Every structure is written in structure tokens, then in C-alpha cells.
Amino acid sequence: MRRGIWFVIALTALMIGMGCAPQPSQKAGQAVLFDGLINVFDNGIYYRGTQIGSIQATETGKGNVTRVAITISPEFAASMGDQVVFYVDRGRLEAAQLQSFGIPLEPGAPICGFASQTEFNWFKFKTLLKDRVGAARQRALALQARMG
User: Fewer CB atoms near the end CB (10 Å): N or C, the chain?
Assistant: First the structure.
């Protein structure tokens, strides 16, 4: 009888623990870094017109760097790697892929963001003959270092 009670308690604790574990949609520690202030009015994150996630928090730190904490839906999270960047367009956060494949993001890895589509297009033009993914990664790391 006592074994049965302990088994039920252990099973309940296991089920509660699994329910509290981060789900695939919760990319723990994912942050998009922007150079300067951004104007986002919609908490959704979009890719080609479809909502793929949401904004959890926004903060502006040292060096005029804005950090946006995000969560991404499981469908898009599986294909999200270092080839993904974000830009602000008409008051909402848009995702874009610099190329069709990339290295999966590590938890806490910064993601490159652009305050406008024009800034994003200028970045693509400047890196036309370079490794765009590497340049975006370096930009995000530089913004992270400036923020502290």
C-alpha cells in the first residue's frame, strides 16, 4: 500500500516537472539586439505574413542598444538558426532568412536585429560579396558587448 502511494506521488511529481519544463516554443534566453531605439506596436513576430512567435520583453541598455526577448513557435523554431535575423517593419517584428540553412542557435546566443527594413536592406547590400551570416553574428555579438 505504501509503495503504491509513493509511486503515485513520484508519478505526479514527474508529470508536474515535465509540464514546467521549457517547451520547444520557448527558446530560453533568445534575444534580438537592435542598434538604437525601435518602435514596435504589435507583440507578434511574423515571417512572410504568418505569426511565428511573440515578444516577451523589451529593454534599452547601455550604448543605446535595445534587447527584445522573444519566443518562437515550434514549427519555426526547428528551422531557426544563425541565418535568421529580425527587422522592424510598420510597427511589427519581421523575421528574415539570410540563407536557407544555418547552424542551430545556442541558448543565450544573440540574434541580429535591424530597426527598419531600410537598415536591413543596407546591411544586405554591404555584405553582398561577404558571408552575411557571419557578419550578422559579429554585429549581434558587438551589440551584446556594447549593452554589457
Answer: N
Instruction: For residue 104, tell me if it sits in a domain.
Output: yes
Model confidence pLDDT, tens digit, residues 8-23: 455 455 455 444 444 4
The count of structural domains within the chain is: 1
Is there a domain that residue 9 lies in?
no
Question: What's the whole-model pTM score?
Answer: 0.76
Q: pLDDT, tens digit, for every residue of 87-140?
A: 999 999 999 998 888 888 787 789 999 999 999 999 999 998 888 888 988 999
Query: Is 31 within a domain?
Result: yes
> What domain range includes position 94?
23-147
